[in-house]
User: What shape does this take?
Amino acid sequence: MQVLLLIAAIVLGLIMIPFGMPGTLVLFGGALCYFLLVPAGGIGLTTVIAMGVLMVVAEGLEWVLTSRFTKKYGGSRRAGWGAILGGMVGAFMGVPVPVIGSIVGAFVGAFVGAFVFEWSRGQDHGVATRVAWGAFVGRVTAAAVKVAIGLVMAVWMIAAVLV
Assistant: This one.
């Protein structure tokens, strides 16, 4: 029964990640709860610490990659923050649309946030659009990296329980 609950937490976490929600936090929480509630269950302190480190890395990379791609495409630091904030607002605003709303919202929000923050600096539309495209590419890249890290976390936990 405990293994089924852990698997449910893993599946929930993996589903949450592409939607811009903190799925890696759910994965970490599942590992921590399993460790605390099932002492001889296979997930040890090393696994819990590793899950915590991977969670922090995944969440940090999401911000860093979005900002870095914005800057790579000619954006200012301000545009990088616009992409991060826009991505968060977009993910939240997209929730009412079933299934893909928060994914699309996060990507569109990063684009719009970077565009508005860069354009408000006095840049022309062409420059602001290029910067916004960089923010979009960064957000997509960050989502892919975060999903990959989530999959590593899931496989690690399942292997710890089954082996």
Observations:
- Residues 2-162 form one domain.
- The longest helix spans residues 125-162.
- The chain has a mean pLDDT of 88.
- The chain has one domain: 2-162.
